[in-house]
Amino acid sequence: MNASYHLEEITHWYGERQVLSVAQLQIRSGEILALVGPSGAGKSTLLRLLNFLEWPTGGRLYFGDHLVTPALSLEQKRRVVGVFQRPGLLHRSVVANIGYGVQLRGRVPDPSLLQQWLDRLGLGPLAQQAAAKLSAGEGQRVALARALIIQPDVLLLDEPTANLDPYNVGLIEQIVREEQAQRKMTVVWVTHDLFQARRVAHRVALMVGGQIVEVGEREAFFNRPQSEVAAAFLRGELVYG
User: Fold this and answer.
1) Strand runs (DSSP E) across the chain, as ranges?
2) pTM, to two decimals
3) Can you state the percent helix, strand and coil of the chain, rounding each to 5?
4) Mean pLDDT of all residues in the chain?
5) C-alpha to C-alpha distance for 156 and 231, rounded to whole angstroms
6) 82 φ/ψ angles, rounded to the nearest 5 degrees
7) How far out from the chain centre does Cα 222 lie?
8) Do the beta carbons of residue 204 and residue 216 sit within 8 Å?
9) What b/e string do you get for 224-234 counting C-beta neighbours within 10 Å, with b at 16 or more?
């Protein structure tokens, strides 16, 4: 079963500061949902909840049919992987990094599959290179291969192409779209780049001040925003998070 999320009355606090107040959000199975909004809106925090790195302070978060609590099984958690702006590579070779998630799941990485991902992401000549010596774009490609080789049900992306050159941006977008289309993977993609959101997403959700203020199909969101807040954001006017 492909995974989806359902959020009901989610709140999240850091000390005395409330950072999330999401009344309701449904993330459909097999869609790419772009999460946009100003800095400080709560996008990365929401992604941490979806990645089971933190637990909501209040409300109910469902992953498929499972209520998300600290008791969520490791089997369910491993259906979700994330790729972040800083990929956090191990002090190992490129190929060892790509196979690491497979090893964590108690399997021996298939050499032919490793080679396929090296070639697909243009990393073949760098297979034995130390990850610490990679450029930012190369590192993000390794992180993406490490995530996708395990064929997750859900891929969470937190600004994975920020500060990358156009070639690497395009390659990462292409690979994610191809994998999502082929395997009907659920993707939640946090991005500040509205052009990127329009290129990759099926639906777009706007977060402001910890709240989801509008969710819509891609073209409707960009062409026919339903709220003045969304219209102002799309016009490039300052919206406070």
Assistant:
1) 5-14, 17-27, 32-36, 58-63, 66-67, 80-84, 154-158, 186-190, 203-208, 211-217
2) 0.93
3) 35, 25, 35
4) 93
5) 26
6) -125, 150
7) 21
8) yes
9) ebeeebbeebb
Interatomic CA distance for residues 202 and 32, integer angstroms: 5
Helices and strands: H and E segment counts in the chain: 10, 10
Higher pLDDT, 240 or 145: 145
For residue 238, what pLDDT is reported? 60
Tokens 């080789």, located at residue:
149
Domain segments of the chain: what residues? 5-89+153-234
Give the per-residue pLDDT at 237: 82
Query: CA torsion 49→52→57→62, rounded to 10°?
Result: 80
pLDDT digit string, tens, across residues 62-106: 999 999 999 999 999 999 999 988 888 999 999 999 999 999 888
CATH class assigned to 5-89+153-234: alpha beta
Give the pLDDT of residue 163.
Answer: 81
Residues in the chain: 241
Q: Distance between CA atoms of 12 and 4, rounded to whole angstroms?
A: 20
Please count the other Cβ atoms lying within 10 Å of the Cβ belonging to residue 159: 20
